[in-house]
TrEMBL record:
Keywords: Arabinose catabolism, Carbohydrate metabolism, Isomerase, Manganese, Metal-binding. It holds the Pfam family Arabinose_Iso_C. This is L-arabinose isomerase. SUPFAM superfamilies: FucI/AraA C-terminal domain-like, FucI/AraA N-terminal and middle domains. The keyword Cytoplasm does not apply. Its EC number is 5.3.1.4.
Amino acid sequence: MINPVIPRRKPLRANVAMFSIGLDTYWQQFPGLLDELLGKSARLVQKLEANQVTVSDFGMVDCAQRAYEALPKIKAADPDVLFVDMVTYGTSATFGAIVREMNCPVVLVALQPLRAMDYARGTTYMQLCNDDYCSVPEFTGVALRMGHPVADVIIGQLDGDPEADTALAEWCRIAHVRHDLRRARLGHMGHVLEAMLDMQTDPSSLTAQLGCHIVQCEADQMLPTYRSVDPAGKDVIDMKKRILAFFDTPVPVSDPLTEKLTDADLETAAVVAVTLEKYITEKSLDGLAYYYEGEPDSVTRKLVTNFIVGNSLLTAAGFPMCGEFDIKTCVAMLIMDRLEIGGSFAEFHPIDFERDSVLVGHDGPHHLNIAEGKPVIRSLKKYHGKPGSGAGVEFNIKTGPITMLSVSVNDHGRLRFIVAEGESMPGPIPPTGNTNTHGRFAPDVRTFLKRWCLSGPTHHFALGIGHHASTLVKIADSFGIECIRVTE
């Protein structure tokens, strides 16, 4: 997980539901058992709440009648993930009526109190207190028959089990992704670069498959806000201080397109950054994908071609801001951000056959919280392949494990996740005002890149730190989206 240098503008949120499984016959047979099992459930609530989720606990469901009573209440809570606490044996009639109606991942949790039974002093009561796994196979089989297979089964001990705690935390992070993605308002401003067919995206398909709403934005809509920002005002002065405190501003090295950050470019970057922060608040946006050119020498062109610094600051604060109108990669960046692993706008650059690596990066906005060391900002005399000039962001991604997520589209118009894991290696990057890192992938760079491109990605992807392919697969499954793992 990242250690954020730039804090979130909004806290992580998710709503999870849970209920406990038991058998009503037991309660009269074994006085005190119900209270003891409810104590186990209370402990699970504490564990879940420690992962920044709001828990709705629907209590003990111990017969079919209570399952039908609980169902409308669970559905009304609209959970991002449903946890079923398998505190002891229960019949699948307590579960089948619920699971068939769920449109969120259902996770069975079987965490027993004892590492092993005290066999010499064993009793039926002791066994029932630790029978968490007993009905798991029954439940998973019934879920399949209902056409709604469970998303996961977490098996372990109630306390002192880091593996089980990690699994619970992973599903809470998935809940964060699902919560925000299902409700996100993602701005879409401008148009694709001419003839970039892989960038074409049907906004309604994103709503259909993910739930997010695409807000169609006009570049000119920002002009009143831009004009209202006083370059000599406190907001801009404070933004300049933020930028200079966060970025290094070195002298140029080898690229004639670069120069030391100019006062004019700093002021423009600061004014535009303030404009962006005001604009996303006005439009209630959770992210933005944009590309627009504007008339040469116009105010519009100056505005829309200088988003990079402000967008990088916003991306690190939890608002994915994506260049080249790539709304699919904006989604990928949001997913990674909510997993707290970064999510930088990226593509492949030249291969380094000497290091068996490939440069991974992009011009434009990046997730500054995954930078290795202090990021650099340079003035660029021109943005290659695009109109305009101004400040560019440059840094290495943190060294260590990395994960890539490309959100693409298959031949039926359905989304496809393409995922790979690798390593960010130390090494020099070109001083071009663009972000890059040396990515190394198994089994070797040639084979990996061939496998990646044959999987049908878009040319952009989101780049995060750590190895999280298995979590991304679960997220894809939760939305019914195909997922291809290029590296295993």
